Amino acid sequence: MSTTDYKPIPLSQYQEIPAAEMQQRADDFFGLMKKRRSVRAFSDRPVERGVIERCLLTAGRAPSGANQQPWKFVVVTNPELKRTIRLAAEEEEREFYAGGASEEWLDALKPLATDAEKPFLEQAPYLIVIFSENYGVDHQGNKIKHYYVRDSVGIATGMLITAIHNAGLASLTHTPSPMRFLNEILDRPKNETPTMILVVGYPEEGVTVPDIEKKSLEEIAVFKT
Ligand code: IYR
């Protein structure tokens, strides 16, 4: 990307929503997003690659520090690669659950009843491994500083999760800890750090989810009027 100034162009894509429709649209979108749940068991039913591609392009519309777009989505469908990832993740997770994690952390996870077994890493048709580009590299191999990397990748990840839900698919944000093994398995350069595996597909038939609650508006927002 060049360092010359961007040319200002008209905001031709902005479409004002009439005030009367605005509330309805906000309500409808909340109604859609209220239905999103992480699931931990997936069907092996295939999903059209075009749907995933479109959701990735949606994630790529996220704002980012200095528009550096410091994300890379590695889309894994290959069964052997999925198996390799599962085995490596389970090895890390066994250590995590056997005491690698603090008592406090394990206590916080207890209500979710998670364990080191991660069959979903093989069951689901798609693993989208999300990497942060902690710095860029120019044509001469010089490092380019990136800004607000975590924030930017977090926003893009949220948009991806939203797009996937909107398309009618389930997802799980999975964070094996530590997860550097993903660089090696997926042959990614060292300026890229894995942040998450987003597991994507149809939920397994009859899957259950924990009966959790989300905070109320009063708990999450403060209005200063
Ligand atoms: N990575 C582990 C532990 C885990 C951590 C958090 I924070 C969660 O919200 C859920 C699980 C695992 O995937 O089991």
UniProtKB/TrEMBL annotation:
Residue ranges of every copy of the Nitroreductase domain listed in the record: 34-202
GO molecular function: oxidoreductase activity
Keyword Nucleotide-binding: no
CDD domains for the chain: iodotyrosine_dehalogenase (cd02144)
InterPro entries found in the cross-reference section: Nitroreductase (IPR029479), Nitroreductase-like (IPR000415), Nitroreductase/BluB (IPR050627)
Gene3D superfamilies found in the cross-reference section: NADH Oxidase (3.40.109.10)
Keyword Oxidoreductase included in the entry's annotation: yes
SUPFAM superfamilies reported for this sequence: FMN-dependent nitroreductase-like
Superkingdom of origin: Bacteria
A Pfam family hit: Nitroreductase
Assigned keywords, A-Z: Flavoprotein, FMN, Oxidoreductase
Protein name: Nitroreductase family protein
Provenance organism: Sedimenticola thiotaurini
